[in-house]
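REVIEWER CHECKLIST
Item 1: Sequence provided? yes
Item 2: Single chain? yes
Item 3: Sequence as submitted:
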Amino acid sequence: RTQAAGLPWWTWGLPAAAALIAAGLLLTARRRTTAPAPDPALADVPLEITGLTKRYAGATDRYAVRELSFRVEKGQVLGLLGPNGAGKTTTLRMLMGLIRPDEGEIRVFGHAIRPGAPVLSRVGAFVEGAGFLPHLSGRENLELYWQATGRPAEDARLEEALEIADLGDALARAVRTYSQGMRQRLAIAQAMLGLPDLLILDEPTNGLDPPQIREMREVMIRYAAGGRTVIVSSHLLSEVEQSCTHLVVMDRGRLVQAGPVSEITGGSDTLLVTTAVPLSDPVVEKIGALPGIGSARRVDEGLLVRLSGATSNELIAELVRLDVPVTGAGPYRRLEDAFLTLIGGSA
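Item 4: Structure as written out by the authors:
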C-alpha cells in the first residue's frame, strides 16, 4: 500500500507568512489613508516646519532636533547655520523624507512629508558628493541619472538646468577629467534636473577654492532668481552672508533665531559710514580721536566707526561739523560676530 508523501517542512509556515504579509499590507494601507490632508493655505509656501522633534535612537531625553519651527517663502535663499551637533543634517534628512520625526510635521507646498511622498518630486537635493561614471561625459551622466528616475525625458529641463549651472564645454568631456569644482557643479546640476521648486544643498562649497566658491554662489542666486527656493547648509559664514537672503540659526537641536540676514546681523556698536569721496588719513585720525569714539578705520565701503559712549546721532553731527561728505550711516556687524553672539561662542 502506497502512503501519501508528507508535505515539505517549509510549507508549514505558509499560512503564518501569508498572515504577516496581509497584516503588513493592511498596516501600509492604513498609514496611507491616515496621512494628513494637504493644507490649501500653504499651497504656495515652499516649506513650513512646525514643532519638529527627533530623539537620538534609544533615548527618551536626548534630542537631535527639538521643537523646531520655521517657514520659508518663494524666492528666498535660506542659510541653515549652527555648530557641529546643532541638528542641521538631521533636519535636512527629515525634510527629504529619509527619516521620520518623532513629533511635529514638515509641509512642502502644503503636503506633509513622509518617505516616498509624491510632493518630494518638487524637491531637489545635494547632500553628499554624487557618484558619477568617470568614463561618461557630464551630459551623459545627467541623462543616465534622469532615465533612472523613470520620469519623462522632457520633464528633465536639462538645458535650463545646465544654463544655470554654467558648465560650458566641460559637459562634453569625460567626468574623470573634471576638477573638484566642476564635479561639484555637475552634482548641483543633477540636483536641479526638473528645476525643482525647492532645492536643498548641504555644504555645496566643500573642497572648493575661492574662485569656485564664488561661482557656486552665483549658481545659487541665479536659481532662486526664477522664483524658486534654495536652502543651503554651510559652515562658511562669509559666503552665507553674501549668498543668502534669510537665515535659520540652530544650536543643540533648537531654533535660536530666524529672519532676514540684515535683521540678524544688525544691532551693533560699530557704524558703517559711507562718504561721497574717500577720506584722507588725517581726517580718519581726527574722527577716531573724537570723544565717545573708540576707533575709526577706512574700508572699501567707507568708514567703520566703533562707538564708545557716543550715539550715532552725535557722531553724524561731529562728522558734519568736520565737513565730512556723509552719504549714509548704519549699524555694521559681520555674520560671524552675530553668529557667535547667538550661540554663545560654542561653535
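Item 5: Key structural point noted by reviewer: The domain at 269-331 is CATH 3.30.70.920 (Alpha-Beta Plaits).
Item 6: Recommendation: ____
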